[in-house]
Design brief:
With 288 residues, this protein is α+β, with helices and mostly antiparallel strands. Helices cover 25% and strands 35% of the residues. An eight-stranded mixed β-sheet has the order 2-3-4-1-13-16-15-14. Helix 6 packs antiparallel against helix 7. This is Glyoxalase superfamily enzyme, possibly 3-demethylubiquinone-9 3-methyltransferase.
């Protein structure tokens, strides 16, 4: 599995508390502990928790599927994540799983707890919901993402019209009920949904992509901002579907972690002025 791609969750000052909570629930570990950024590892998967402020709230347009091998495991995660949370789909038996539920935890992160066979080797799988003007574009998004990144493929696709139990009348039979895709060896699920939810993609949940060099940085940045995407600040962008990515050269992290606080600070200040991260300008600031 690729730890150069991982989710980032936006918090208003409670990232540390949340990091400790998830590490307890999933028997994970904290790998970086700073006032702004917490990194945790759950089942060998990296996640970043960012104290960004009150601007953005997490919602169910991006949820996290946890694939469980036993009913006891489903019950454990469900019961612990429900502490202070709320059920969005009750824990029950469904056509796609003998035991499944969808919940929002007390930190507004949504989880789908699923009993079933894990065919990806990845325990926690981000799941993107394409709603409103994105409804019907899940296939287009999978093509964009798998064409942008190496070691990528589109896996199993279930369309609403394929379902044995008949699809909801509200959904277009050609739209995607559930699909699996991989970008650079990191698995995602996605779905189309016609329901008029009161939320959509925002910066509260983004995907971080660590890059090896400027060429890779430029390629991801240019491809993901094309056709209606938007450049933001400090390596952040929105793609044409409004989903947020952070394209971060590994060199930035090295320079920001320099033992000389003055040098590190100069790098941070240079980064704060950038949209796309330009490594040679970081180096120039570092050496200034």
């Amino acid at each position: 599995m690729n730890n150069n791609i991982f989710p980032c969750f936006w918090y208003d000052e409670n990232a540390k508390e949340s990091a400790e909570f998830y590490c307890k629930v999933f028997n994970g570990k904290i790998t970086a502990d700073t006032p702004v950024v917490m990194n945790i590892e759950l089942f060998g998967q990296k996640m970043m928790l960012l104290n960004g402020g009150p601007q953005f709230k997490k919602n169910a347009s991006v949820s996290f599927m946890v694939i469980c091998e036993t009913e006891d495991e489903v019950d454990k995660y469900w019961n612990e994540l429900m502490d202070g949370g709320m059920a969005l789909m009750p824990l029950d038996s469904y056509s796609w799983s003998k035991k499944y539920g969808w919940l929002k935890d007390k930190y507004d992160v949504t989880w789908q707890i699923f009993l079933g066979e894990n065919q990806t080797g990845q325990k926690i799988i981000p799941t993107l919901m394409f709603i409103h003007e994105n409804n019907g574009k899940a296939m287009q998004a999978m093509k964009l993402y798998t064409n942008t990144f190496p070691n990528s493929r589109i896996g199993n696709i279930l369309k609403y019209g394929d379902g044995s139990e008949g699809h909801p009348a509200t959904e277009d039979p050609d739209h995607i009920q559930h699909a699996h895709f991989v970008i650079d060896n990191y698995s995602f699920f996605c779905m189309d949904n016609s329901y008029d939810h009161q939320f959509d993609f925002n910066e509260a949940i983004s995907m971080v992509v660590m890059t090896d060099d400027q060429e890779q940085t430029d390629h991801y940045w240019n491809t993901l901002t094309s056709n209606g995407g938007r450049e933001s600040m400090c390596g952040w962008l929105k793609d044409q579907f409004g989903f947020s990515w952070q394209i971060v050269p590994k060199r930035l992290i090295q320079l920001m972690s320099d033992p000389d606080p003055m040098k590190a600070q100069k790098v941070v200040q240079a980064m704060m002025r950038m949209q796309k991260i330009v490594i040679k300008d970081l180096e120039k600031a570092y050496n200034s």
